Amino acid sequence: MTENPIYGFDTLQVHAGARPDPTTGARQTPIYQTTAYVFRDADHAAALFNLQEVGYIYSRLTNPTVAVLQERIATLEGGIGAVCCSSGHAAQIMALFPLMGPGLNVVVSTRLYGGSVTQFSHTIKRFGWEAKFVDFDDLDAVRAAIDDNTRAVFCESIANPGGYITDLDAIAGVADAAGLPLIVDNTSATPYLCRPIEHGATLVVHSVTKYLTGNGTVMGGAVVDSGRFDWSASDKFPSLSAPEPAYHGLKFHETFGNLAFTFHGIAIGLRDLGMTMNPQAAHYALMGIETLSLRMEKHVANAKRVAAWLEQDPRVEYVTYAGLESSPYFDRVERICPKGAGALFTVAIKGGYEACVRLVDSLELFSHVANLGDTRSLVIHAASTTHRQLTEEQQVAAGAAPNVVRFSIGIEDADDLIRDLDQALAKAAD
Ligand SMILES: Cc1ncc(COP(=O)(O)O)c(C=O)c1O
């Protein structure tokens, strides 16, 4: 069903990639809890290992339950293929791995999830990779940061935690002019609210842990390929365009065409990095995705009401939700994420750091956790938790200043959420 244009999003989120089990007729996708798969004969095994035939060898590389999820996510994003992996952070490494090498760099937005800032500013250096952080509203600065050693441009569609929306079309234009792939983390938006490939993204990455699964049960990640990038147009991407010694000189782009990135992600990425998603996690993610649009509608409706209520409250300094008319990014909502600005935003509380800590301790319905994209409403004080490894300057740039808390608005009754916030703000102001 991947390329079938006649079905709408709500149909595809239930059906894409899945068929009744051919042997049992099971209607729900079975959890293929197996490590290995029996080869028909020695020739079959050899063809699979040579990548001459597509099939199942070993679940570090491919698993039928995970394969359904891959096709479902690729379809919803409008991509040609996807590789699922063990977490959103794994997906970021999996996306960069075929593009990067020692001495090469990726140009990234300053407005990213704090864990990504840490991953990019410290951990990837161990591979000899570098990340150059730039304000993605300053297109000249993005252009200036790109040099001969740049291999990708990376941003989030709706950035965590700040309610910032990236002008994807403009950034894609810059990446395109430089002959570079644009990687967009679409975790906070989901393909229901934003489809980065339609705005020029080459690759889309996800933390499947969040809204896609939707109920805080599993860890997972995905890399979706648009299939649109010409990996052989320059000599910058030899992993995809040049002979691969581990497969007897096979050239991924020449052999697999627009599926080159996806095949590489499985045959090299999962095989050697081993960041595999397990079939149980894929099952939970598939269950979650079936109701994605319904949940996102309610998340957005609740977020709009709660953000508007908070904005008029005298105990609040400001609210960063892009769905509010006061947001400098309000105009981008209609163009980039027409079904809504998500359900994630930060709120600056009068009384600063101490008042924020009292607020999170006083909330009863909201859970104080390091997560987002759950059916339950969640809160966190980013500066003392997810973003605490950053300098204060980085915290402010990432929208996580010490006087702000981040809310992930769930799908409960908005009136109940507002009542809970009202009593907690009263305690925070004491
Ligand atoms: C926007 C964004 N991207 C990536 C990640 C990393 O995902 P995971 O925790 O599944 O590794 C997160 C985690 O919070 C996130 O919010």
Strand content: 5-15%
What is the number of helices? 17
Mean pLDDT: 95
CATH domain topology of the largest domain: Aspartate Aminotransferase, domain 2
**CATH superfamily heading of the largest domain:** Type I PLP-dependent aspartate aminotransferase-like (Major domain)
CATH class of the largest domain: Alpha Beta
Specify the helix fraction band. 25-40%
- How are strands sequenced across the largest beta sheet? 1-9-8-7-4-2-3
User: Which architecture of the largest domain per CATH?
Assistant: 3-Layer(aba) Sandwich
- Return residue spans where pLDDT drops below 50 for at least 5 consecutive residues: none
How would you describe the shape? globular
Total DSSP E strands: 14
Distance between the termini: 57 Å
Please describe the biggest sheet, giving its number of strands, its sense, and whether it closes into a barrel.
7 strands, mixed
Rg is 22 Å
Structural class: alpha/beta
**What ligands does this structure carry?**
pyridoxal-5'-phosphate
